[in-house]
Amino acid sequence: MRVLLELRPALDGHAGIPQETRLLFRGLAGMEGVDVLGLIQSSNLVVDAGLPLLRGRLADAREAAHSIDRLSQVVVSLQQGASANRLEHVRKKFLKLAGPISGAAKDVVGLKVPLTGFDAAHFKDYVWRAFFARTLPVEDFNAVTTREFRILRWPWAYVNALGAATGAMGHALYPRVDTEGIDLMIAETPYPGRVNRGTQLVVRYHDAIPLLMPHTIKDRGHHRAMHYRALKRNAADGAWFACVSEATRSDLLSVLPEVASRAVTIPNMISHNYFAETASAARVPEIIWSRKNRQAPYSGGAEVEAEASLRGDLPYLLMVSTVEPRKNYLALLDAWELLRNSGFPHLHLVCVGNLGWDHEAIMRRFTPWLGRGGLHLLEDVPAADLRLLYRHARLTVCPSFGEGFDFSGVEAMRSGGVVVASDIAVHREVYADAAEYFSPYSAAMLASCMRDLLDTNAASRREQLVLRGKEVSARYLPERVMPQWQDFLLSLASVANPGDRVRP
């Protein structure tokens, strides 16, 4: 079975969907009977064409210098940051003024858009560092860089904008990607495109938040519309949906009940980087100091090291998530302030995450504490350091209003940490009885929940949670999840139409 996996998310970020994309590609690369190929497409950039294909395979090699020159141009085109900004400006102008009819739209609407090939033989360094290095161990280098890759030139954001704009006029239009020779394509979100009849599309469905919680997302009108239009198109085209949790599957079916027979649940995988950490907490102050978000208004900076040296440790709460409203940072901040003023005056709060959308109100509350000390906002923390932070945090807090899976609690459990989480369906499902729960709408309840576990008499309960967390988090190890993917792929092969390409 030849499987084409969308790699676009792997270009961005360390955790979440980017991490899942890398782990799934590696898992498929080691699966018997599966030949996985990576689909290279940028979110915002027009990518240069790669090498020609013949019946879905790389055509006979041209002069080596010519091929290498062309692929070098592909690499350069994937890294033109200024072009991305210009394209985003053009996209917004297009949506506002030009409508769906433009020269580029004519190139893709109603036509079969060709894929071209990318031979990584001379570009393994780029492929590894751009797509895989932030998650996979170096032992996987050859397994992923020796695969075949395909290039789709048109930016994902552009064709999404096209579908949203034309959908508003009555019929969403998307390009048909020429997937000749591909049995199955896995897209990491609702995909703004169509595939050949002989290719089965599978959408890795992470959450329905753009539809069910549209007030919490960025660029709300456009993001909601592009998610809905692409989702509807995929469903109408007979796509299967591999949901990351049963809660996410339930949300999907609340929107599209007609896909119930084509929706399965396969959980996300946890990275090999998270395991029971045995190192001491001695490096924690250094990690906090060296990974501070430099956009944050810090002043001073020696209080972490000074307090740690006086006390012998640094008591802190940990939250790992993008700084945006849905993650519920403000409730955690309120609860932390309550604890500081009622028996835990030396308790620090460490937040790990890049600044996201609508973060201004959160940062206004953070700013006095960032100046005074006690609250620390970190970014780009390597997995090995994050594992140490998880292990030595008094608690890892997952207070979100809504999630599709929520990696941070599982990572904390795998690292030997103690987790408290908002009482939402997906947390109950994913974390089971390995966490304590609180209402995300009550800072007082969160403070009470944390106080109970911070109490000196809570050692036994904390130990129970750590032991149970080890068992629960093991459900998401690749060796437990990839067999579920294999069973799913085999089931697709068994129900494929006789004329289709899907086969084991």
Folded structure, characterized:
By secondary structure, this protein is an alpha/beta fold. The chain has 2 domains: 2-269 and 479-495, no CATH class; 281-476, 3-Layer(aba) Sandwich (Rossmann fold), CATH 3.40.50. The protein has helices at 16-29, 64-77, 81-98, 103-108, 124-132, 141-145, 156-168, 209-212, 220-236, 246-255, 284-290, 303-311, 329-340, 360-372, 383-392, 407-415, 425-431, 443-454, 459-473, 478-495; strands at residues 2-6, 35-40, 53-54, 57-58, 112-113, 116-118, 148-151, 176-177, 184-187, 200-205, 240-243, 263-265, 316-320, 348-352, 375-378, 395-398, 419-422, 436-438. The protein is globular and about 70 Å long.
Query: What about the largest sheet?
Result: 8 strands, mixed
Distance between the termini: 5 Å
The number of helical segments is 20
Output the structural class.
Answer: alpha/beta
What order do the strands of the largest sheet run in, or round the barrel if closed?
6-7-2-1-9-10-11-12
Shape: globular
Mean of pLDDT: 89
- The Rg value, from CA coordinates, equals 24 Å
Q: Identify low-pLDDT runs.
A: 82-86, 88-107
